[in-house]
Specification:
Layout lengths: L2 E8 L1 H12 L4 E8 L20 H13 L4 E5 L3 E7 L2 E6 L4 E9 L3 E3 L15 E2 L2 H4 L7 E5 L3 H10 L5 E5 L9 H8 L4 E4 L2 E8 L3 E8 L5 E5 L2 E4 L3 E3 L30 E3 L11 H21 L4
Parallel strand pairs: 1-2, 1-6, 2-3, 6-17, 8-15, 9-10, 9-15, 10-11
Antiparallel strand pairs: 4-5, 5-6, 7-16, 12-13, 13-14
The structure holds flavin-adenine dinucleotide.
Flavin-adenine dinucleotide binds next to strand 1, helix 1, strand 2, strand 7 and helix 6.
Length: 309
Amino acid sequence: MPYDVIIIGGGPGGVAAGIYAARKKMKALIITDSFGGQSLTSAAIENWIGTASISGYDLAKQLEAHLRAQQGIEIVEGDLVASVAKKDGGFSVVTKGGKAFDTKYVLVTSGSRRKKLGIPGEAEYDGKGVVYCSTCDAPLFGGKTVAVVGGGNSALESVVDLIPYASKIYVMVRSGAMRGDPVTQEKVKSHPQVEVVWNALPQEVIGKDMVTGIRYQDAVSGEMKELALDGVFVEIGLMPNSDFVKDLVTLNQVGHIVVDHATQQSSCPGIWAAGDVSDVLYDQNNISVGDSIKAVLNIYDQVKKGFSA
Ligand SMILES: Cc1cc2nc3c(=O)[nH]c(=O)nc-3n(C[C@H](O)[C@H](O)[C@H](O)COP(=O)(O)OP(=O)(O)OC[C@H]3O[C@@H](n4cnc5c(N)ncnc54)[C@H](O)[C@@H]3O)c2cc1C
């Protein structure tokens, strides 16, 4: 008997959908490599509604415990969905581990992964001064000296997020020009706390217990230089985890799944998407939860109708 719905991803969005699907007594399965999602590495999440401050790790534990407290939801953990294909009016979902499942509907909540610089010291100081979300962590750098790596809109937004907190903000741009919105560029470039470092190619994040600086190469002179820092905000883009449905649904130019924001339905009947993997405007835990619940309730409306895709 196929599932009513298979939920792909165990971040805040997937877990919220799993809890609601179980409470609606839907025949539901959630597949994820791990629970908690992107903010797992965050030292302090201060905007999870209802909790003044919680670490990403503790949030992950709470989410998993809430899901496992539900009756009737099936869980495959430690595996990743590799492909989704149409089958008999529904879908076949196959994992990297070789498991195959049939379902009427699919909810994709597989989130995104932040592009990394891929330089020495970056992984070592992840959460110890290397940051991938300024909305989340800018308040932790009050009075500090930081660098934002990137020249696009997410980098400019990070600088705007940091201005109320950090005393000095370097913006490291790999060429002689930024790509972000011209108006925000002017605001950022002219701000007294901000210094733009043009043609900067980061080479290594340096530190002791925490970040103490970054080594970079001047792309024009070839010279190696260093900046003394307390934090490095890496803002060089996101990659939505949407590869396994790219042949079935419409994606935007970045790879986010385009959805109807009233129902979270994708362009392919029977597939819904929510959270960071979708073309939502703001990447936030609370928003991912809300949109995933909207999606699973809309799926439930279909299940109630006994309608098959
Ligand atoms: C460092 C950091 C700190 C952050 N701090 C905050 C904060 O303080 N407050 C806030 O509101 N937001 C914060 N965010 C943003 C927030 O984490 C995201 O908006 C939120 O996690 C999105 O939830 P999601 O469920 O859509 O996706 P994700 O959290 O990305 O979860 C997706 C899940 O799907 C799994 N998955 C991926 N591919 C597959 C596959 N093929 N098969 C099965 N499973 C898969 C992933 O492992 C993950 O468990 C932060 C982000 C980062 C990177």
